């Protein structure tokens, strides 16, 4: 089993120490940085599986950090923490690609459970391409029977969306 790489972006030194103590285990590599720009630089240098970022950072906000790191690796699982929790903030975080939104102060068990769930979600995301390939090899469009115009339109549409990554992804890059 490979190490779970966790990148924590938090500018409060006391919380940095707490998170390092809580999240460090022999099957995890925990990297802690104090700014958004530093987090993006680290994500370009080492693989990151789970990102835990504060929303309010001294340079760029946590949502921008999340979006930039997801551009580097779309399989990263992002968790956004904030002391300024609101429904609007949680919605923005989810739209930016966050796996979850964590209000500070948080209970230690809550973040530990969340990291376990994020680890499991990362494993699923990592394995998704091989599953897609296996299903694609077993079920090919050529196996469908029919040559009517409606069937041909459906098969054409299926071929276009086959490589989309899921909810929110639409052929041609447009959203409805």
Instruction: Calculate the terminal CA-CA distance, rounded to whole Å.
Output: 40 Å
Provide the spatial order of strands within the biggest beta sheet: 2-1-3-4-5
Which shape, going by the Cα principal axes? elongated
CATH class of the largest domain: Alpha Beta
Output the radius of gyration: 20 Å
The CATH architecture of the largest domain comes to 3-Layer(aba) Sandwich
The string of secondary-structure elements, in order, is: EHEHEHEHEHH
**Overall SS class:** alpha/beta
> What's the CATH topology label of the largest domain?
Rossmann fold
Helix content: 40-55%
Notes on the structure:
The structure is a single chain. The chain is α/β, with parallel strands linked by helices. The chain has two domains: 4-129, Response regulator (Rossmann fold, 3-Layer(aba) Sandwich); 140-173, no CATH class. The chain has six helices and five strands; from the N terminus they run βαβαβαβαβαα. The chain has a five-stranded parallel beta sheet, with helices on both faces. α2 runs parallel beside α3 (62-72). The longest helix is centred in the C-terminal third of the chain and has 31 residues, at 108-138. It is elongated and about 65 Å long. 24% of the residues are buried. Residues 167-176 have low confidence and may be disordered.
Topology:
Layout (H helix, E strand, L loop, with lengths): L3 E6 L3 H11 L4 E6 L2 H10 L4 E5 L7 H11 L4 E6 L4 H9 L2 E6 L4 H31 L10 H13 L15
Parallel strand pairs: 1-2, 1-3, 3-4, 4-5
Helix pairs in contact: 2-3
